[in-house]
Amino acid sequence: MAEQKLNAPARAQYEIRRSPAGVRKVTEYQDPGYTIVGNHLTQHRSLSGLAIGLAAHIQSLPEGAPVDIRTLARRFPEGRDRIAAALRELEAYGYLERVRRRTDDGRMVTVTLSYNNPEATRARRARDAAEQAKRRTAVEPPPPAPDPDPVPLPVPVGQLPQPDHAPRASPTPKASSEPPPNPAPRPSPAPNPSPAPRPPEPTTDEHHTLASALLANLRRDDPRLLLSVRDIHRLTPPVAAWLERGASPEAVRGALTAGLPPTLRHPAALLAHRLTELLPPPLPAAPTPPRVATPPAPPPLQTCDGCERAFRAPAPGLCRDCRHPGRSGTQRRFLTP
Description:
The protein is mostly helical. It is 35% helix and 6% strand. Among the domains are: 39-118, Winged helix-like DNA-binding domain superfamily/Winged helix DNA-binding domain (Arc Repressor Mutant, subunit A, Orthogonal Bundle); 206-258 and 267-277, no CATH class. The chain has helices spanning 39-42, 49-60, 69-75, 80-92, 118-139, 206-216, 218-221, 229-244, 249-257, 267-277, 320-323, 325-328; strands at 96-102, 108-114, 301-303, 310-312. A two-stranded antiparallel ribbon has the order 1-2. The radius of gyration is 48 Å and the shape is elongated. It starts with 38 loop residues before the first helix and ends in a 9-residue tail after the last helix. Residues 196-204 and 329-337 have low confidence and may be disordered.
């Protein structure tokens, strides 16, 4: 064997060898108008280059810009089929979500949600759901305490034992060969009367039904307003109060969904606050129209017995001129047969 030389130079174990070929970055300061894209997207192992480029392009667009297949096909040289396949890739990996919603005028539109970091979004939503479930558990009332020991049934007044003022010593029974007589049967206490049946709970009226449907449909306007059954039951009475005060369902939905913050962690608490603070006043009572006095009906027409003229009077007879011939100043000629 060769002799081991301890004074030989040690080999560098962690030396990084760089090749003269490869990318070289030239970084310059950019004015406002750039987009921050994570390496999890640009270096994704499963996405195609077209899908990565479309995701970066969609992230750079302003809010409300159209990103349908036809618009993207006019923007890029790739055809509709390749662009549609790339969008499906982004949907499969969570970078894109297309939701169908109904507008106030009844039209169906497609809203595209672009996520710059779907993993972080899923983790945040799971954390918010856990916090909301923990808060609900803390708000729930404790379980009812077990019933105490049963109270003995009351004994009728006639059967109450009469207390003695002084304790008496029980006499010692004498020995006898005769069997003791059978004791008289004690009357059984009166059974406890059963509680009166409770009246049936009133069913929900039209306002409550419409309010619960309105709250359940809020997720169509914004996916973040997805409420649980417990929250819908809790918020139904405030919404019904709005409807009872004359507010239309469109006005209530607009008051609940307008101007939502970009980060919405507790949608039920926000809706409860808006329903309480923005409650409209009740409509004033409609003024009662003034009653118009009906003029009395005129007396019927009568035929004068003297001149055969028509005049109004409650009973037949002579007209005013025939009753007072001197007042008119004219001479009446009566018809003679």
